[in-house]
Amino acid sequence: MNLQDLFTVTSLTDAINKLPVAPNKAAKTGLFLERGVTTTSVVIENLDGHLRLVQSVSRNADPVPVKLDKRKRRTFEIPHLPTTAQILPSEIQSIASFGSDSALNPAANPQVTIINDKLAGMKSWLDQTREWQRMGGIAGQILDADGSIIYDLYDEFGITKKAGNIKFSDKTTDVRAELLKRKRAIEKAAPSLVITGWKAFCGADFFDGLTGHDSVKAAYANWAAAQDRLGGDLRSGFRYADIDFEEYNWTISGRDFVAPNKCRLFPVAQNMFRLYNAPANYNETVNTIGLPFYAKAEERKMGKGWDLEAQSNPLAMCLYPETLDELTGN
Questions:
Q1: Which residues have CB under 8 Å from 321's CB, separation 6+?
Q2: φ, ψ dihedrals at 92, nearest 5°
Q3: Which of 79, 88, 101, 264 has its CA 20 to 30 A from that of 30?
Q4: Helices 175-189 and 214-230, axial angle in degrees (round to 10)
């Protein structure tokens, strides 16, 4: 097998998309429907607070009429996330002869193993960044790696952000009543949304305040006892007021996916969240349907190894940002 054959866009992109996905809570919910697009941007329309993708039409066709007093349209550029690495001759020296399938270990192809190891490391960063975007979609605010705002859906479409406070420090607080009040407000905001469940990602302090409050303790104790008998993680999911609460205590580059005293409450419904994948910025991928990941290699000067690039071009969105609720526990 020739090394050039291993380093083509097709081979490397196939390889990186076949690698396992890093564990992540928002992705594992299955709520973010992924869709590849052929463009580097998407047009989102706001109609009565509900966001939806605008269907493209032929340039020769009549445009769809828009009532400007009720609808707003925005074009969202899809973020470009590239990563780089190198494969040096010393890393593949003595592993296999150039232009040959022979290898020291005939049961495997060490060249492919080295390439996949490099891709796996690069994909891990991309996976975590895509998860960071999903959590931004759940918050209604897409943030960059440095914490700066890429898109604020509330500001973009003039939607009032929902935010509430639950006083866990007050023993008389009726936590269940407070949560039901939040749910009713969400249901009222999107009466056409078919809600099949409720989910909440919590910071560690919020989760402890919730499960430690007197009005919740009995329910949590019974649930925890059942989980103990099954050998489960007590933080992996606790249902109260028909809401599945899950601790999301994950920090990357010094940034919390959920702040310790915060909770992201949202309904579970079909077509609630989307994740759009744009094509890579390579000649070979122009106007093709976007994939979650891409990889490509280029031979270095004087044939001294290869420069390897992996990239992802995602945009996570919530199409019903009026149903997102940020709770603070104190």
A1: 49, 51, 140, 153, 154, 157, 159
A2: -115, 5
A3: 79
A4: 90
